[in-house]
Amino acid sequence: MDSLYVWDMTYDCEQEDAIRFRDPVTDKVGFLGKNGNLAIRANYNDARPFYNGLALVVHDGKRVCADGTPYKAGCEHWSWDGKTALINRQGEIVADNINLMVTDHLNWYSCKIADSPADTTLHTSFKTKNNKYYTFINYQKEFKKWFYQQFITGLQAGKLSSYCFDELIVEGLWKQTIRKPYNKVAFTKQYSAVLQKKMGAVNQRKVEVFTVSEALNPYIYDSKNFKVFYTDCGDANEAKFPSFDVITSHYTTSHQLNYQEHFSFLKTANGYKLIGVALKSTK
Q1: pLDDT tens digits for range 96-112
Q2: How many angstroms separate the CA atoms of 153 and 250, rounded?
Q3: Beta-bridge partners for 62
Q4: How far apart are CA 169 and CA 181, in angstroms?
Q5: What is the DSSP string of 150-180?
Q6: 31, 102, 108, 138 from 132: Cα distances, Å
């Protein structure tokens, strides 16, 4: 029990027949196999789970407080200051000195090995130790391209239904309207014209828009239709099924933020689908 890997008051969950542990003596992290056997020795300051046989690790690091000062007892917010690397299932470093800032939103299952880096329009590439490149699709870049080039265009052509998930959640921002589930047919019938208008404003840049990665909320999307998008531990399976919120901001005449509306999307086996909206009005 003293070797359990805990982060943010949560125990680690097995991923690809591997689970992290922290050696209480060395304060280093390694991996156990599916039978509890030692799979990878505790050689790293920290590590993320395995996805498609690859995991990000931190080595040669030290804890630092949020203000950059050395870690000390009572430092509430801290992080690791070290080198980020990519390891395989044998614990071998295949790419080192990775910029951690570019590792978010990667589709680990899209990995390809090439002699040169890929176009950064949709991809992120890491140079390996043998001078090859591991290339991954960036989910967020992929989603934004799909949203503007397919969803909005298809919506204006009356194809909302083909971009909707089987079940959608509608929430109002006005007078705390209760969330209400819709099937795809009922939602399309009631909200097609509404979304055409609102997305038309987005397309014409009449409203301020930004996109955020938002983990699927098990307290909202809790029906059997969404069960496949969670891990066996009940967490959103963001590595395979990321979700994004497109948020539109609306201001008063004095340029003060008045309200925001949300349009939620989930990557499924059949592509990105609209799963929910939070609207102030249907006008």
Answers
A1: 999 999 999 999 999 99
A2: 22
A3: 81
A4: 4
A5: IIHHHHHTT-GGGGEEEEEEEEESSTTPPPE
A6: 26, 18, 17, 19
Angstrom distance (rounded) from CA 235 to CA 46? 21
**Biggest CA-to-CA distance, the chain:** 64
Q: How many CA atoms lie within 13 A of 115 on its CB side?
A: 0
SS3 content of the chain, % helix, strand, coil (to 5): 20, 45, 40
Contact 18, 39 (CB under 8 A): yes
| Spatial distance between the Cα atoms of 91 and 112, rounded to a whole number of angstroms | 20
Residues of the chain with pLDDT under 70: 1-2, 173-177
C-alpha separations of 247 from 166, 198, 207, 261, 280 in Å: 22, 11, 10, 6, 12
Phi-psi region of 164 (alpha: psi -120 to 50; beta: other; left: phi over 0): beta
Q: pLDDT tens digit string along 107-133?
A: 999 999 999 999 999 999 999 999 999
What is each CA distance from 120 to 126, 144, 242, in whole angstroms? 12, 14, 20
Burial 197-207 (b: 16+ CB within 10 A, else e): ebbeebeeeee
Residue 16's alpha-carbon distances to 6, 33, 50, 165, 262, in angstroms, are 18, 9, 6, 28, 33
Residue (of 271, 273, 265, 267) closest to 160 by Cα position: 273
DSSP 184: H
Provide the 3-class DSSP secondary structure of residue 40.
strand
Task: Tell me the two tokens of residue 233.
Answer: 């531990």
Domains and CATH numbers, the chain: 6-103 (no CATH), 141-279 (3.10.450)
Q: What is the DSSP letter of 241?
A: S
